[in-house]
Amino acid sequence: MRRFGGERITNMLNRFSSEDEQGEIRLEMRMLTKQIEAAQKRVEAMNFETRKNVLRYDDVMNKQREIIYGQRRRVLMGEDLSESIKTMIYATIDGIAEAKCNPHAPKENWDFTALSQEICKLTLQPARPIFSDEEQKKLSYEDVLQKLYRFADAAYEQTETRLKQAEIDMRENERVLLLRTVDEHWMEHIDAMDQLKQGIGLRSYGQKDPVYAYTSEGFEMFDAMVAEIREQTVRRLYMMQVTGGPLHRVQLAKPIEPKSEGSAATFSRSEKKVGRNDPCPCGSGKKYKNCHGKNE
């Protein structure tokens, strides 16, 4: 009542209330009934709005989880990801090419030298010009992209040939690297989204819908995370020709079939202890501290 009734109601409460023998305050005016009912309705409406916003916040994260968990399931089920990897490579090249040779800018402003340097760095090839002087004059932007794709494909085939000679499964290494990179960035993204949700309520003071701001900024952060996953996966895959040797699974999550309804999934810990903020080895996608490490 004091919170929602304002100064007028506060003065009335002070004036028309008295204490009984036990020291409890008794209200002696029936006219306060409507004010009490109105205050109760406002509290209920506020609580309902809070619960509704929580659900809308959760809906944003649920949509993002569906995308990430879908990618993880493909990896854990052992799918051939070579086509997805190629798509990642081409998308990374697209970003580099657009930055160095803006298709909307005059061709004389295209920086073929910087473009060649970036692509050679990405694919870990010796630094050299990828385009001749004649090609720089004649090639369209689409032709430039196609040549870069072929250059990247050739470099990746070299990596695969080298690993094959060492009897290393390229497809398995692709899955391991992608899963590791996804899990690293997803854990960081969850923390970032939690921080965003905690601070987003302040937006209401600026006459902005906090849920809309959370949804908009949350998906911008998600898109940025996906781009980082893509680029880092590509760079790590090309680095295999430098590090050499097979990539060993370190507590790599695998699908677990429950033994019976209601039984909890179990896993065995390897020699290296799982960090509380690391992905849980059971494959749930949750942090260890929120899954099997909850009671530790």
The proportion of strand residues reads under 5%
Give the helix tally.
8
**Strands side by side in the biggest sheet:** 1-2
Q: Can you name the CATH architecture of the largest domain?
A: Orthogonal Bundle
Explain this structure to me?
- This protein is mostly helical.
- The protein folds into two domains: 2-46, no CATH class; 78-245, Orthogonal Bundle (Helical scaffold and wing domains of SecA).
- Helix content is 63%, strand content 2%.
- The protein has eight helices and two strands; from the N terminus they run αββααααααα.
- The chain has helices at 2-16, 32-76, 82-100, 112-123, 133-138, 141-165, 170-200, 210-243, and strands at residues 17-19, 25-27.
- A two-stranded antiparallel ribbon has the order 1-2.
- Helix 2 (32-76) runs antiparallel to helix 7 (170-200) and helix 3 packs antiparallel against helix 4.
- The longest helix has 45 residues, at 32-76.
- Residues 248-271 have low confidence and may be disordered.
- This is Protein translocase subunit SecA.
- InterPro entries: SEC_C_motif, SecA, SecA_Wing/Scaffold, SecA_Wing/Scaffold_sf.
- Residues 254-296 are annotated as: Disordered.
How is this fold's topology laid out?
Layout: H1 2-16, E1 17-19, E2 25-27, H2 32-76, H3 82-100, H4 112-123, H5 133-138, H6 141-165, H7 170-200, H8 210-243
Antiparallel strand pairs: 1-2
Helix pairs in contact: 2-7, 2-8, 3-4, 3-6, 3-8, 6-8, 7-8
Question: What key attributes describe this structure?
Answer:
296 residues; mainly alpha; Helical scaffold and wing domains of SecA; 2 domains; 8 helices; 2% strand; flat; coiled coil; nucleotide-binding
